Amino acid sequence: MADDRAAIGIFDSGVGGLTVFRQVAARLPGESIVYLGDTARVPYGTKSADTVVRYARACARILLKRNVKLLVVACNTASAFAVDVLRDELDVPVVDVVGPGARAAVARSRSGRIGVIGTAGTVASRAYDESIAALQPGATVTAQACPLFVPLAEEGWLEGTVPEAVAHHYLDSMRGTVDTLVLGCTHYPLLAAAIGAVMGPEVALVDSAEETARVTAETLAAIGAANAEAPPCYRFLVSDAPDAFVRVGQRFLGRPLAGVEWVDF
Ligand code: DGL
């Protein structure tokens, strides 16, 4: 049986996965978490599948050295390309964000016409298309890469003319064709207002982080490793200098970030 006092490990290419950290910490307030942002190698969304798998393996290795009891792959691109490899190779349960996001979308959609937005890598992988098709074979998926959303979110340009113009550019052709849109990238929940303004109020926006937190809780309970009691301890690790992670990460986390540690891969 896994050690219930061990921490949950969460990794992402950078700050984006803090949106997942936030949901996991809210859902499981007794759990300690070690978060790793691979800030030296971000972005993953423009890299090849082989490269992302190599990076994901390296992140998992760092977190396993910290004795984590479960690994959450918070990055959509890493989930899309590397989750099967990690599940095959690791001895701890691995929770991804694509499966939970797909499930949440299928549950929300009335028509089965589902949109997915993500990085170029996530869209090219067709991971969401395949997960949605496995859950609801008749569903139609329209996917669109929205690469400019990542720098907009990191710069804090979340609402107003510029993000809405960018959202129109990517999403106008999808408007009116889907009833549910998966925000299939860690950064996109921050732009939900601009995305929603373009898609219209009748389109449900799905943030996979909430569903991922639920799956994390269920998985821990299933392996008998849940820890509801202890005051949690949060650690943040980065592969590049911590300054930018601290500055940008506070916006993603919704609270101040302290004690960020550089780790050597
Ligand atoms: N975290 C990545 C994702 O969710 C977005 C940023 C990147 O490209 O690394 O796909």
Mind sketching the topology for me?
Layout lengths: L7 E5 L5 H10 L5 E5 L11 H17 L4 E4 L2 H14 L4 E2 L2 H11 L4 E6 L1 H6 L1 H9 L4 E6 L3 H7 L5 H11 L8 E5 L7 H8 L4 E4 H15 L11 E5 L3 H12 L6 E3 L3
Parallel strand pairs: 1-2, 1-3, 2-9, 3-4, 5-6, 5-7, 7-8, 9-10
The chain binds D-glutamic acid.
The site of D-glutamic acid has 16 residues, from helix 3.
Could you describe the 3D structure shown?
Helix 4 (98-108) crosses helix 6. Strand 1 (8-12), helix 1 (18-27) and strand 2 (33-37) form a beta-alpha-beta unit. 45% of the residues lie in helices and 17% in strands. The two termini are 29 Å apart. By secondary structure, it is of the alpha/beta class. It is globular, with a radius of gyration of 17 Å. The strands form two sheets. It has a six-stranded parallel sheet, sandwiched between helices. Strands 6-5-7-8 form a four-stranded parallel sheet. The protein contains eleven helices and ten strands. D-glutamic acid (DGL) binds at residues 12-13, 16, 42-45, 75-77, 119, 122, 150, 185-187.
